[in-house]
Amino acid sequence: MESIKDKVAIVGMGCTKFGERWDAGLDDLAIEAVYEAYEDAGIDPKDIQACWYGSVTQPVVGIGCTHLAGPLKLHGIPMSRVENWCTTGHEALRNACFGVACGMYDLVLALGVEKLKDTGFPGLGAGRGMSTVLEARRTAPGSFGMIATRYFYTYGLSPEEGKRIIGKIAVKNHHNGSLCPKAHFHNRVTLEQVTSAPIIAWPLGLFDCCGNSDGGASALLVPASQAKNYRDDPIYIKGLGAAHSALLPQNRPAFDWLHFEEVINSSRQAYAQAGVKNPREQIDIAEIHDCFTSTELLLYELLGFSPEGKSKEDIDSGFFELGGGLPVNSDGGLKCFGHPVGASGLRMTYEVYKQLQGKAESTERQLKDTKLGISQTFGGPPQVAAVAVLGKEPGYP
Amino acid sequence: MAGIISYGAYIPLWRLSREVIAKAWESASTGGERSVANNDEDAITLASEAAIDCLCGLEREKVSGLYFASTTSPYKEKECSTLVAMAADLPPEIITADFGNSLRAATQAFRAALDAVISGSAGQVLVTASDCRIGYPRSSYEQTFGDAAAALLIGNTARPAVIVEGSYALSNELYDVWRLDKDTYVQSWEDRFIIEHGYTEIMEKVISGLLRKKALAVQDITKAVLYAPTSRAQQGLAHRLGFDVKTQLQDLLINNIGITGCAHALLMLVAALEEANAGDKILVASYGSGCDAFLLRVTKEIEEVRGNRRGVKRHMNSKRPLSSYARYLSYRGLLAPQPGEPFRLFPAATTSWRERNWAIRMHGSKCKNCGTVTFPIERVCYKCRSRDDFEEVRLSDKKARVFTFTLDNLAGRSDDPTIPQIGAEFDYQNTRAYLPMTDCDPGEVKIDMPVEMTFRRLYEGAGMYNYFWKCRPIR
C-alpha cells in the first residue's frame, strides 16, 4: 500500500462567509466558494478536469450534481457527488486527491457546500437514523451528549466539573472565532455564560453546541510536481485517513463509548502516511470536529494530543489556545462557523491551508512556525471519521 | 378441565387525582384517582404489557391463540391481536381474533377461548382485554374512567388454576353507552334508565339465572366480581341479589384505577384471584348490551401462578401522579402538540414487515460461532463475521441498565419536550440497545440505573402507527 504523502498539492482554496445566509442559495454559496479558489490559484475554470462535490441535506437540494453543474458551468467534465455524514467535505477532498494521485487528472476541484437554513428548523433535526424505529428520535446533540455523560462518569467528573471543563473549550473557540471574519459567530463568551446556558441535550448546553449555518468551501488540487507552476506556497497532502465502525455506537456490544475506533483508525492511517509519530509534538495546528465541546474534549485524546482522561490538564494550561503548544480550532471551529455538514471538512482544511501559508486575515490570529496541520471530522451516529494531514514543505516530516 | 392457567394485568404508571380534574372544571370531585395511559400508550401496548405479565415464567411456545378485546382499538381496519401476539413473542402458528365494540368484548373473548380449548381447536389461548376510553370534558365519565389491561391464559388441562364450572348470558339491545364510528367521547342515555332498567335488571337476571342453573345459593359464592359503571350501581345490585357487600363483593377498583371499559371485569377478576384460596367459588359478570356471567372454582394451582406476576396489586401500588389536567389532555391525545421537525423516515409496510422480528419481537442475534449477541439482528457477526450463522434471542424480557444517557430537549414534542435517550446494556452478554426512556422523571436518570423493556407507540406517519420498544425504570 502506497502513501499519498507529497503526491498531491493544493494550489487554491476558497471559503464563503458562514452564517445565516438568507440571501444565498446553495448555488450562490458554491459560486462564492469556488471563485475565491480560482482567483487564489490563478486558474481559468475551463481548465478544471473533474469535480468531486459533497453535500448532505438531500431533501433541500435534491440528488446528484446537476443543481451545481449549472450554476458553476462545469461543462463536459465528470462531476461526482459524495456524502458521508459529517466527513462529507473530507470525502470530496479525499476522492479528488485520488483522482489526481492516480494520474488521471491534473487539475481537480473539491467542493463542499451546505444550505441548512432552508429547512425551517434549527439544528439538524430528529430521526437521523436509517430505521423508522431504531433511532426515530435521535438528534445530533443527543448522540454526542451520551458520549459526554459516559466520559464524565468514566473519569469521575461531577456534572459541574465536566461542564466546566468542556465550557472552557467553548470560551476558547468563541475567542478564536471573534478574530475570524468568515465565522458565523463573533461573540466572546464567559465560562459562566457557557455553564449556565439552557440545556439542549444534557449535559450539553446551548454554548456546548455548534451553530446551524450555511456555508461552502473548495480546494483546487494538482499533482505535487506541478504545484509550483501555480504558486510559490502550495500546500501538500501528507496523509488521508478515513474509517467507519461496523455498528452504531449504541449497538456495539460492550463498547465503552469512548474509544471510537473510527477516529483512532482514521487518524493513525493518516499519521502513518505522513510520518507523524508524535502528534502532540509534531502537529502545529489542528482543526478538529467540535460539533459539541465534549466532542473536542474526547478528540484531544483519541487523536493522540492528550493522554487518556487527561485533556482537562491541557485545557487548564491553555495548551490548545492560540498561543499554546498545539492551537486547536484557531478559526473558532464548528462552534463559530456552524456545521453546514458538507462544507465543514473543506472549511477546516481552508484554515489549515491559510495558516500554513502564513496568510491568516490578521497577525492577531496568525500562528507562528506552522509546518504541519490536520483537519479532522467525526460524525454520524457517530460512526465515521476522516483526517487530512497537510504540510507546507515537501518531504517533511 | 377447561379453565384459567395464568393471569396478568397492566395499569399505566400515571394517576390523575380526581381533585385535579374537579379543580380544572370548578366542579366536584368523586374522590380518589384514575389511571391515565401515557402519550406513547394505547390499547395495543396496554394489552401487550398484560399479555407479557400473564406469560411470566411460562413457555410461550405452548400458546396457540391470542385474542384481543377492546372498544378503543387504534385501528378500525387491521387486526390488533396479531401485533399483540408478536410483541408477546408468541409463535406464528396461532389463532388470533379481535373482539370489539362491546363492553362485554373481553368476556366474549373469554368464552370463545374456552370454547376453542374445549373443542380442541387450540391448546392454550391468551385472552387480552384493554381499553382507554375517554369521557366528555367535565362529565362524570371523565372522572370515573381509567385505562388498564388484563390478560388470562385459558387452557384445557388436568390442573388449571381456575376451573370454569358454568356460564350464562343474556343479550339486550339497548342504547346505554355508545360511540359512533367517528366519536372520541363516550355518549350515554339518562342514568336512571340505563342503571335501573339496563344494568341492574339484566345483571340480576343473568346472575340469578346462573346460580339457579348451578343449583347454588348466593352464600355459596366466595367472591362476586361484578362489573359496574359506578360503586353505587354495583352495591345496589349486590344488595338486590343478597350478597354481603363487605365480605362477598370484589372491590370495583374505582378509587385507584377507575372503570376500565371492557377490560374491567377481567381486571377485577385478576384482583380477586390474587387474594383467592383453593376451593373459592368466584362469580364474574360483565355488562354491555347484555350480560355474560361465569362461575369459577379456584384450585391450589393458583399458588403457582401468583409468584412473579405484577397483576393488579403490584401495578396499582406502582404509580406516579400526573401534575395537571393539561397533562391528561396531552397524554390522551386530546390536545395536538405543535408539529415539530418532521421524521426523516416514515414507517413503511415493507420495512415494518421485514424488521418485525427485532422491531416487534425484540429479538437480537446470537452468533453460533462466537456467542456475540447484538441488537438488532445482525446477519454478519459483529465480532467474528460469521455469515447467517445465528439464532434469535428474545431481549424484551431481559432487564438492562443505563450505560450512558442524554436528556434531549430537541427530540420531544412541544407538550413533552425532554426525551431521555438511553444507551442501555442488557444483563445478558453486554448486549446494547438504544432506547428512549418512558414513564420516568428525566431528572432521576443515572448511569447504572436498572431498566426494563416496554412496548410503546412511537409516532404516526404515512397514515399508520409505528410501534417499538422503550425502556423504563423497573416498576
Walk me through this protein's architecture.
The complex is a heterodimer of chains A (397) and B (475). Chain A has 13 helices and eleven strands. With 397 residues, chain A is an alpha/beta fold. Chain A has a domain at 8-121 and 212-222: Peroxisomal Thiolase, Chain A, domain 1. Chain A has a nine-stranded mixed β-sheet with strand order 3-2-4-7-1-8-11-10-9. A two-stranded antiparallel ribbon of chain A has the order 5-6. In chain A, a hairpin with a 1-residue loop joins strand 5 and strand 6 (204-205). By secondary structure, chain B is of the alpha+beta class. Chain B folds into two domains: 2-331, Peroxisomal Thiolase, Chain A, domain 1 (3-Layer(aba) Sandwich), CATH 3.40.47.10; 349-473, no CATH class. Chain B is 26% helix and 29% strand. In chain B, the strands form five sheets. Chain B has a nine-stranded mixed β-sheet, with helices on both faces. Chain B has a five-stranded antiparallel β-sheet with strand order 20-19-18-21-22. Chain B is globular, with a radius of gyration of 22 Å. The two termini of chain B are 35 Å apart. At the A-B interface, helix 5 and strand 5 of A face strand 16, strand 18, strand 19, strand 20 and strand 21 of B. Strand 5 (199-202) of chain A pairs antiparallel with strand 18 of chain B, so a sheet runs across the interface.
Question: What is the C-alpha radius of gyration of chain A, as a whole number of Å?
Answer: 19 Å
Largest interface: A-B, 45 and 49 residues
What is the spatial order of strands in the main beta sheet of chain B? Answer: 5-4-6-7-1-8-13-12-11
What is the name of the CATH superfamily of the domain at 8-121 and 212-222 in chain A? Thiolase/Chalcone synthase
CATH architecture of the domain at 8-121 and 212-222 in chain A: 3-Layer(aba) Sandwich
The CATH topology of the domain at 8-121 and 212-222 in chain A is given as: Peroxisomal Thiolase, Chain A, domain 1
Q: Could you say which structural class the secondary elements and strand pairing of chain B correspond to?
A: alpha+beta
What is the overall pLDDT average of chain B? 96
Instruction: Tell me the major beta sheet of chain B.
Output: 9 strands, mixed
Query: What proportion of the residues of chain B form beta strands (DSSP E)?
Result: 25-35%
CATH superfamily of the largest domain in chain B: Thiolase/Chalcone synthase
What top-tier CATH class of the domain at 8-121 and 212-222 in chain A fits best? Answer: Alpha Beta
Tell me the CATH topology of the largest domain in chain B: Peroxisomal Thiolase, Chain A, domain 1
How would a textbook summarize the main sheet of chain A? 9 strands, mixed
With helices defined by DSSP (H or I, 4 residues minimum), what is the helix count of chain B? 13
Helix content of chain A: 25-40%
Percent of residues of chain B in helical segments? 25-40%
